[in-house]
């Protein structure tokens, strides 16, 4: 496509080093839980300003490990409904019961009032999701609420590598945080994820859980019902190369977002950006914009077929409490989550894009919106 919805970016000059390190792993036979995994953990812990990071097989496994370490079995975990399936699935796999909460339309994150109304004596944990790379400023209030009732706050930071609030990085707010290194993310290891925490016991438990519940790497003495949640050394090699580029990648995404900011107001009232609130520095994993009086399906189709532009996947199209797999946890409507899921689009952003690409997206979007509006008027008539 002329402008794809997302793009994996490995600069050409990085590829020889990645290949050489993977060949080294193949020659040595050190293919898992080796030096490159440890280096990735050390560097990511520094990024998040925490003492511990544990590399694992995915962002989903990172969440499940944290939840198992916390001990949620048989109890409720509060989850914002506007999140990816994996957030809720991790709760179920860890033996917990999901309690879906509503979301804040200004940040797409967990709504404070809904959190308060969902807390009860059976609450084992609260998960806060940094949607699109935006850390909600309400996290301070959410932290206080969790501290007051003695419930751990867990960050689902799958979108938020390098994002900050008042200079404090994602991955350093709650008891522990889960990041994803899936290929669409701001940085990738191919497949993989990482846990960050300040808590020594969470670090110790995560090390055990990720390696089949073994007490140590060199023993077969199993003390937890763990799983193969290890990250391989080749994946860690890829992650390290991307880690070295993370600041550069974020700066390019911020440049694209600034270009969108400069031109999108001209498209009102049909579309308006979801700006990060004061104090938030977003990595712009997604550039989110609210739409009004627009057929989203038709708009995306026009952008793709007539202008060769792919609008990025929503965050998210359907709230989790309306997903069929979670129907047993449906205990009423969550109107704010339902509205924001239905009324937004995400403009394409990647480290490979140029400012010219962003301007072309805006020009195409203006034409597509005009076409969409005319078709809606015609249909209404």
Name the features.
three-stranded antiparallel β-sheet; seven-stranded mixed β-sheet; alpha/beta; Aspartate Aminotransferase, domain 1; 14% strand; 11 helices; 381 residues; Aspartate Aminotransferase, domain 2; 2 domains; single chain; globular
CATH architecture of the largest domain: 3-Layer(aba) Sandwich
Model regions low in confidence, pLDDT < 50 over at least 5 residues: none
Reported for the largest beta sheet, the result is: 7 strands, mixed
Overall shape: it is globular
Tally the structural domains. Answer: 2
Number of helices: 11
Name of the top-level CATH class of the largest domain: Alpha Beta
CATH topology of the largest domain: Aspartate Aminotransferase, domain 2
CATH superfamily of the largest domain: Type I PLP-dependent aspartate aminotransferase-like (Major domain)
Radius of gyration: 21 Å
The ordered string of helix (H) and strand (E) elements is HHEHEHEHEHEEEEEHHEEEHHEH
Give the mean pLDDT.
Answer: 96
Secondary structure class reads alpha/beta
How far apart the termini lie comes to 35 Å
| Strand order within the widest beta sheet | 1-9-8-5-4-2-3
| Helix amount | 40-55%
Beta-strand residue percentage: 5-15%
Number of strands: 13
What does this structure look like?
The protein has eleven helices and 13 strands. With 381 residues, it is an alpha/beta fold. Helix 1 packs antiparallel against helix 8 and helix 3 packs across helix 7. The strands form three sheets. It has a seven-stranded mixed sheet, with helices on both faces. Strands 7-6-11 form a three-stranded antiparallel sheet, with no helix packed on it. The protein has two domains: 231 residues, Aspartate Aminotransferase, domain 2, CATH 3.40.640; 135 residues, Aspartate Aminotransferase, domain 1 (Alpha-Beta Complex). The mean pLDDT is 96.
